[in-house]
Amino acid sequence: MGDTFTKSMALLHTWVGVIIGSVLFAMFWFGTLSVFASEIDRWMLPQTRIVPAIAHATAPLSLDRLAALAAPQIPKEAKQWRIDLPTARNPTAELTWRTAGAGGDEHARLIDPVTYSLLAPQQSHGATGFFVPFHYMLHIAWLDLGKWLAGLAAMAMLALLVSGVVIHKKIFIQLFTFRPHKRLQRSALDLHNLTGVVALPFHFMIALSGLVIFITIYFPQLHAGAYGTDARAKAAFMADAYGKYARKPAGAPGPLASLDAMRATAQQQWGGGQPYFVRVFHPGDANSYVELRRSYANDVTMNLDQVYFDAATGKVLARFEAGPVMTAQRFISGLHFIRFDHALLRWLYFAGGLAGCVMICTGFLFWIEARRAQHAKKGLAGVRVVEGLTIGSVTGIVLATQVFMVANRLLPADGQHGENAALEVQAFYGAWALSFAHAWWRGRTAWRGQAGAIAALAVLAVALNWASTGDHLYRTLAQGRYAVAGVDLMLVGVALAGAYIARRLRTS
Amino acid sequence: MALRIAGAIAGGYALTALAVAACSAALASAGMARAEAVALCAMLGFVLFLVLVLWACSVRSVGRLYLALAGGAMLLAALWWTVA
Questions:
Q1: Which residues pair with A289 in a beta bridge?
Q2: A212: chain B residues, CB-CB within 8 Å
Q3: Going residue by residue through chain A (508 aa), what tens digit of pLDDT does each one get?
């Protein structure tokens, strides 16, 4: 494109950044929040603010008691049901079942594992049901388009990182350069370089590992060489790589043997490893079978270890362990998912994600400021369009997230199941659309207004949490309930940051 | 410019997908477990795609870009056909 390699990379960096920056910011923002998805879930689903983890300490949960609790909930036509066990960060067990038909509807109920009782039906998607899917599929399910867009953005991120390194010669100096009181254009570039260079290894790893998770999505024909192209080839590859056991229902009734005995067998096979979920296929059928999956709470690698049992007799039907390359794939996936328990790393991931948000935002600011005078002179609309896009994608998405959380605490807790969840999502998109409209209408001054609104909404969210659940910071901190306290503290931090930015923009 | 972008994204992706299939077929026929060969090639595919895109953006003439894409595709197809 350019005369030299460096100039080509500069062109690539500029234009790919402007075109895909909005999608990347949304992915970074929700990816950053996803690092603490469990904690935000506690805040958004007050019925799950139960005493955490102690359930582990006494005795292992009885799978048979959980199954007995689940049985009346599961309709006869259910094809399978599953119970996910509580973890250190997630104090509830979760029952899910799927009804017959292609795909089948999925239903879920949360369980208090201490008292073996069902919790009130979930009123919100929470972070796990809304922020996390937004991060990887942008809530566009049609033709997997959202995942493809996210994949394109991740590839663009890799190209941006490489081209960014190529066009900057003084990488080491940029690690220590930030001049916050120079002109905005200079300060923005300093901050863009600083965050880009400091977090470069993290950003490269996170973009590449995000792609590696979805090898079967982004290369839908990956099996064609080794397995051929016929209809069953992909299923054969999936079974070899990820493990699968299946048998058809017999059509005659059959019992379910002790799940606790099956767990004991699985633990023996795994050298003491614990299951993290149990799944029963064709419940009540003579050919019913049970799957146990090994937990990876203490591993980066999200192992694929699974044991299948005959439901009636409890005999082992099949075992699966991933091969070395697939284990590497699951290690790389684990680097991205950060499902393992490690508080310090979790905070570093959070910081790396925020650094990415700052990097994308300041990249936009540099693009805008470098062209503002020139475009005004020539009467071009580019700066105005990109500025609106930037404000809507940066402060707009943060603001919409705050509205989502405020709506969560504002909607009555006795709302019909599912209704509240849909209203929260509508509030999110409504607020986001409004912030784009506001940004294009007001131009540059919209930054200040939206930063102020973010600050006000964050304060409101903390107050509403107190008013609706009685949980204020003093109480949650004193009782050591750090998930709820942490989210409240984060909201206070957001409020302070929003107020500071709004104030500073007024004087400048 | 449009030709270059199409070559970089669509052409680069097509060549990468072909490389994943052809190389996994070759590795599998060399004795590697099939699923392992596929997973290895698919993971490396992202790196290949990145290199192709960056090269496509910097190569001097668009003609050379398409020549290289076509040449690469022929080589990979030949490899696939040999081991299949």
A1: A281, A310
A2: 43, 46
A3: 778 889 999 999 999 999 999 999 999 999 999 999 999 999 999 999 887 655 455 667 899 999 999 999 998 888 999 999 998 889 999 999 988 765 667 788 999 988 899 998 888 999 999 999 999 999 999 999 999 999 999 999 999 999 999 988 777 676 677 888 778 888 888 899 999 999 999 999 999 999 999 999 999 999 999 999 998 999 999 999 999 999 999 999 999 999 999 999 999 999 999 999 999 999 999 999 999 999 998 899 999 999 999 999 999 999 999 999 999 999 999 999 999 989 999 999 999 999 999 999 999 999 999 999 999 899 888 899 999 999 999 999 999 999 999 999 999 877 665 688 999 999 999 999 999 999 999 999 999 999 999 999 999 999 999 999 999 999 999 988 899 999 999 999 999 999 999 998 886 5
Give the number of C-alpha atoms closer than 13 A to the C-alpha of residue A426, restricted to the C-beta side: 7
Helical ranges in A379-481 per DSSP H: 382-393, 395-410, 419-442, 446-469, 473-478
Please report, as a single letter, which amino acid is at residue A279. R
Domain span including residue A482: 381-508
Asked if A202 and A350 sit in the same domain, the reply is yes
A398 and A452 in a single domain? The answer is yes
User: B67 is in which domain, residue-wise?
Assistant: 2-83
In this structure, the answer to whether residues A487 and A423 fall within a common structural domain is: yes
The shortest CB-CB distance from B58 to any of A8, A212, A215 is to: A8
List the one residue out of A186, A169, A188, A201 whose CA is nearest residue A4.
A169
Domain count for chain B, please give it: 1
- Give the number of other CB atoms < 10 A from CB of residue A435: 27
Give the CA angle between residues A139, A142, A148 to the nearest 5°: 75
Does the beta-carbon distance from B4 to A240 stay under 8 Å? no
Size of the A and B interface in Cβ pairs below 8 Å: 103
Statement to judge: residues A36 and A74 lie in one domain = no
The reply to whether A103 and A202 lie within a common domain is no
Are residues A279 and A421 both part of a single domain? no
Q: Are residues A370 and A410 in the same domain?
A: no
Please check whether residues A445 and A389 belong to one and the same domain.
yes
* B20 to A222: CB separation less than 8 angstroms, yes or no: yes
Which residues of A sit within 8 Å Cβ distance of B?
Answer: 1-2, 5, 8-9, 11-12, 155, 158-159, 162-163, 208, 211-212, 215-216, 218-219, 221-227, 237, 240-241, 323-326, 328-329, 332
Total number of domains constituting chain A: 3
CB B24 within 8 A of CB A226: yes
* Dist. CA A150–CA A155, nearest whole Å: 9
Q: Which two tokens stand for residue B81?
A: 């056909």
